[in-house]
Design goal:
Layout lengths: L5 H21 L9 H19 L15 E5 L4 H23 L5 H25 L1 E6 L2 E7 L3 E7 L3 E7 L2 H6 L2 E7 L6 E7 L2 H11 L1
Antiparallel strand pairs: 1-2, 2-3, 3-4, 5-6, 6-7
Helix pairs in contact: 1-2, 3-4
Length: about 210
């Protein structure tokens, strides 16, 4: 089963879309009733995908090599995803008000709606992805495991590491998080990006100490 409560949070975030769509279909005098159907479909999609993710099995710890042991296990923090989704939800609420309760030209609520949907969708996608991702630091490798439908595993032996880089987006800076990019050198560069972790400098220094 996945970490956290993705089914519950997806239901909390999806139900307002379903309710807004039903309102447009049944009662709103300002927009055609058909305009509510995409909202109902989107809200239903969010709820159903959250239910699916809730019951996706978390990845099993990787098989250790001779003399190898897990030093630390980390999961991406949800704070940056939550900030982006929350901002998107506020913008969507403004768009809903402009669309259903005012007589402004449709271009204004539609532009607001597109911007809000982008922020909300990317934040929600990041939340779902973070829920299904686990990072393992061993004394020999950095391993990233992600499971949605199938398991995806990325790993980088420390003897091949040639660079450790820290990055922070605007959202991650606001949320107090950061990313750590660990890459090999040579012609075919391998890399593992550890996203949305607390204390990224401390984590990067820990990796540097194992290289």
């Amino acid at each position: 089963m996945a970490r956290g409560l993705p089914a519950a949070w997806s239901a909390v975030l999806g139900l307002p879309f379903v309710a807004g769509g039903l309102y447009a279909v049944v009662r709103s005098p300002n927009v055609p009733s058909e305009a509510g159907l995409p909202f109902i479909g989107f809200g239903g999609f969010v709820i159903l995908l959250g239910l699916y993710i809730q019951f996706v099995a978390a990845p099993e710890p990787p098989t250790m090599r001779d003399g190898e042991e897990i030093v630390e296990t980390r999961n991406p923090a949800q704070r940056a995803a939550a900030v982006k989704a929350a901002v998107g939800f506020v913008v969507l609420s403004v768009a809903g008000y402009l669309l259903f309760f005012t007589f402004l030209p449709y271009v204004y609520p539609l532009v607001t709606l597109v911007g809000g949907l982008y922020l909300f969708s990317t934040g929600l996608y990041a939340y779902w992805t973070n829920t299904l991702t686990t990072y393992y630091v061993t004394n020999q490798r950095l391993i990233k495991e992600y499971r949605f439908i199938s398991l995806v595993r990325e790993e980088l032996p420390f003897e091949k590491v040639r660079g450790v880089e820290e990055r922070r987006s605007v959202w991650e800076t606001i949320a107090g998080l950061g990313n750590v990019r660990v890459a090999s050198g040579g012609g075919r560069t391998l890399e593992v990006v550890v996203r949305n972790v607390y204390s990224p400098t401390e984590f990067a220094d820990e990796v540097r100490g194992l290289v």
